Amino acid sequence: MAQAKAVAKYWITTTDLLDHVLKHEKRIQLAEPTKDVRIVHRLVSDLFCRYVQLCRSLERCYDQTLQVQKRTVIQQLLEAGQTRMLELRTKLQEIELSEFVYVDGALQEQHLIPDDVLAVRPCYFPAQRPDELQALLDAQKLPPFIEPGSDSEDESSSDESEQPEEEQVPVGKGINRPVVKRDRRKERLQAALNLITAHERARQARVRQTNFRLHPDRYYPKPIDEEIVDVPYEFFYRPGQFMLYPVKRTVYNWDFRMKKKDVVHFAYYAPPGWEEQTVRVASVRWPDATELALKQQAEDDAAAELAQVEAAKRLEEALERIRLNRAAAKIQRYWRKFKALKAQKKHRFDRSKFLGLFDDYEPKLGDELAVAEVRAARRARQPEFDRSFVAAIADEKARILRIRGPALLEDITDFVRAWFREWYDETLAFDLIPEPFQGGTVLIVRGETLTPLEYLALERQKQLDKLKTPEQKKKEADAMKAAKEREQEKKREEKARLKELAREKRARERKEGKTYDFTEPEFMTNAYLTLEETLARYRKDWAFVNELDNLQDLPIMEWITLDKFAEVHQELHAEVHELLKSERELLQMALCKDERMKYKPPKPKKPPRAKGAKGKKRKEPIDPTADLSVESILNELVERNVLKTCRKRTFEDYIGDYNYASFERRNRLEQDPPPGMGEVRTILQSYLYGMGPLVAPKPKSLCLVGPPGYGKTLLLEAICNETGSTLFDLSVDTCGPIEPNNMAYFLQLVLRAARLLQPSVLAIEGVHRAFYKKVPQSEQPLDPAKLGKHLFKLIVKQLKPEDKVLLVGTCDQPWVAKVGPLKKCFDKILLLPRPDYGSTVLLWQYALRRFPTVPRDLDLSALAKVTTGYSAGQILECARQVLNIRRRMQFGRKPLQVGELLDHFLARITPQYPIADKEYEKFVKWHRKVDKLAKQRAKVMRERQLLAEQMAAKAAGAKK
């Protein structure tokens, strides 16, 4: 109950936030049109930040709301809000002429941090497939997308032990015996483990032998008849050593090496049935005086000896106390020195942590995990409420049919028959009942058909038209034709005028700059209008519903009753239509017979055909895979090695920081800074909103460009894993065995399977190979160009906005491909940035902290400064090779040094260096050719640079 009440309160707060955002947008629409791009950027970025927070709140409400009718409203608001948010992001990209936008000014005004406006994984990911399709897909044994041990594999997969593969090899005369492939790496680890275990056992044996040799009284068993001696004993444990003193135990758990005591003669113990014998008292004889004197002298001598022994004992105790004091002082001296060194080391650690040299923050995930479990449990109840809602609808409809159905049928028939009577009384005729596609008898009940007076007026007009002469008819036809031509001429003139205005506007914008008007459709989009209408309709419908009282999230039955009553009314109209139509024909036949007229049955009307844009019938493409079943399609794709599985990757595995100085450099210094690696995650996650069950705009295709080791394959697998997509491998190697004549059929088969199993990702590794300018000699047998010929026509062009299918390509040599076809196939082309200092620090932290014994105060700042520019793959591979098992075992006596990591790059036969600036510039130049925004931004930067040079030259001339 408490949770339901909290969700209801949060939804009320979210509606207030939505109202506030809409009011803020209305205030922006009142702003005057301006040409200042900075003002527009500030207003749009402020609105974008507000919509990001609104979408996050709506998403949480959608995730935790169980009431089905309210969840439908929230879904509409969330879809419209996400669409509006992406529209504002697109507008910012057009203003900044870049895929990566920066809204630091709006963050400062609203007191937010960058994480508050980052794209996050929606709660409704991934979209669920039908159970039968998912079961069919799970039954297939799919190969991995990245083969174990391949070059494109990174360090995380190489640490995992490979599963032994069974092969069938011929042995003897045709006998096949399964042979397990040897795992060399696992055998080396097992051999090392055996060697370490053997050395440890030998050490323990040497310790045991030395103890028995040097301390036989402590370690050898005591004599059997020796009584139990109480000794002071403190239990302590040293691995592999025996106890210095035997533990005092009961007689039931004594040392197994000693014989059991005689329990009968054991002190303090009497066995059952034991009886003590009474001791006989003897007669006492009194001693004489001599005996008493001798006894007294013996006692005095014993007392003197005892005094001497006591004095010697006290002296020995004093000496022992002195030795113990000296030992304690020595122990304290060394302990204080150890504590001082430890405090000094902790002080250095705290100082380095305060200065930001490293981050040793370990978040406590207990509370977060508990909250996530509670939310997941509530989310899991949504299907139960959906089923209950569907059952309530079915029950309500059955109840209305049972109770109100017969009365409704009688009311409809009585009303239509009264309509027949009215027509006959006023016109002596019967009007036609509209066809079901026109509205049927519903139009009669609503009164939207011809009235008798209108019918008489039409009949009178028909009689007058028959009396007109041919000249009059021709004159009227010419007049109508002339009026139609005048109307068409006005439309053409208006169209030409609008076209001329648009041309003048574009010319004025090129000359003077674009004028931004916040009342134009580019700002007041359908998503904004949908938000307003949905919120207004919600507040009108739910005005008299107290949501805090409905803590059981029960459906509102009044609305269900009204909807089902209207639906039942429509169904009953359809059922009674044929009966009333027959009655009307009988009445018309009787009327013709009475009037002695010839009966003409009415011609049946056909529903209008759906036409194309120009009135022509749309020709549907022929699908050669229409006769194939889903199972046969999947089997064929599995045989062709197209359907594959990918590793469990997320966008968090793509390590990288943001470029926090980009806003100032771009908006104040008018520079073009490169984006950070962390911004790639945000832009990719914003592209994937449309891959979920909700409606949101998304690109059809996406291409990731970058040098080797920059994480292109990792991002591809993260896209598949985050969206729960089925992976189709369309690389050149997979399509190589396919004949060129069958390539079109193969791509149509893949597209149909992708739509059936959506969400789906069509992956093409090394997409430049499909668009070679000149095919290398080694790849000519594969004929890679056959894929590029059909890729746009049969895949990209056939994708619809509602399809949850995404084409993703990776490319590390884009300059060897034809620019035109490659640019045509991909809507978005992203160039992955080089790791900067911040990203390099995070990469080294991630690479080294995977090993718990690595010191946390390692000088990562200097290491990152030296290795800035190295790819993420090179850094992770360096950490994996340097910190092997042998090196990690030496951490106790040989701490890790930064020089060891640098030596891996430099002290080798072939040293590794980061990608050169000249080589990376090739990627940048190619990206400017294919990306529209990058091309425009490069042009603007050249103009700014030229203007700055002219101003500098003018200032220098003025000084002279």
Description:
The protein contains 32 helices and eight strands. The chain starts with a helix and ends with a helix. Mean pLDDT is 82; it is low at 151-178, 224-229, 245-261, 266-271 and 274-279. Among the domains are: 133-146 and 628-655 and 699-829, Rossmann fold, CATH 3.40.50; 388-511 and 559-595, no CATH class. It has 960 residues and is mainly alpha-helical. It is elongated, with a radius of gyration of 45 Å. 57% of the residues lie in helices and 4% in strands. The protein has helices at 2-29, 37-64, 68-96, 104-110, 131-138, 155-158, 184-214, 216-219, 289-354, 366-379, 382-403, 405-427, 441-446, 452-467, 470-512, 526-541, 557-595, 630-639, 662-667, 677-687, 712-723, 732-735, 743-756, 785-796, 819-825, 837-848, 860-866, 872-882, 885-889, 898-906, 917-930, 932-959, and strands spanning 166-171, 175-180, 643-644, 701-705, 726-729, 760-765, 805-811, 828-831. The strands form two sheets. Strands 3-5-6-7-4-8 form a six-stranded mixed beta sheet, with helices on both faces. Helix 18 crosses helix 23 (743-756).
